[in-house]
Amino acid sequence: MKSSLPSLGLSAQKVVAQIRKVRKASKQASENNGRFADYRYLRAVLRAYRYFEDNNLLPHLIEIAPSMLMTPVRANWHSLRMIIEATCIQPDLRMRSRWTRALEYALAEDIDPKELPRFIRAHNGIAGCADLASKTKPKRFSPDTSDRPAPVLLRHISAASIHE
Fold first, then answer.
1. Which among 25, 67, 157, 164 has the fewest CB atoms less than 10 Å away?
2. Are 38 and 99 a contacting pair, CB within 8 Å?
3. pLDDT string in tens for the chain (164-residue length)
4. So where are the chain's domains?
5. With contact defined as beta carbons under 8 Å apart, do 84 and 100 qualify?
């Protein structure tokens, strides 16, 4: 069987083929109005990420995403976000971010794609997983303020109290 992408290298063909599978899952999830339809899509994203990771294709994904997949890429994006950006029909960027954080948490907990729906439900849904991801591994650094004195609240000071 001839490949539909003969000019690409074998690794690029594997990446594009896997992305096509995830796009198909995305399309099915968008057509299904069920409450848990997004879980199947997220499972496909996680499965694709594991495939890329196991076959050392993550660097190829980073190279292929902007040119072949017409996907915007930022330097600090996780590979999961690139897969979501390349495959997702959902226009809401906050939802995409939430999905990415939830899947990052599932990766940190080493969850198998087959167990992802159960894992998400056990942790209060996608938003619950995203919240736990932000608590366990925050994206933004907040400076430690434990050694600073507590701020003093100033009340209205009358002229008479100043002279005392």
1. 164
2. yes
3. 444 445 568 888 888 888 899 989 888 888 887 778 788 999 999 999 999 899 988 888 877 776 676 666 776 778 888 889 888 877 788 888 899 999 999 999 999 999 999 999 999 999 999 999 888 777 666 565 556 665 665 555 555 555 65
4. 10-140
5. yes
- Cβ neighbours of residue 16 under 8 Å, at least 6 residues apart? 5, 8, 64, 68, 69
CA torsion through residues 121, 124, 129, 130, sign: positive
Q: Which segments within the chain are labelled E, that is strand?
A: none
Write the single-letter amino acid at 125. Answer: G
Q: By 3-state DSSP, what share of the chain in percent is helix, strand and coil, each rounded to 5?
A: 60, 0, 40
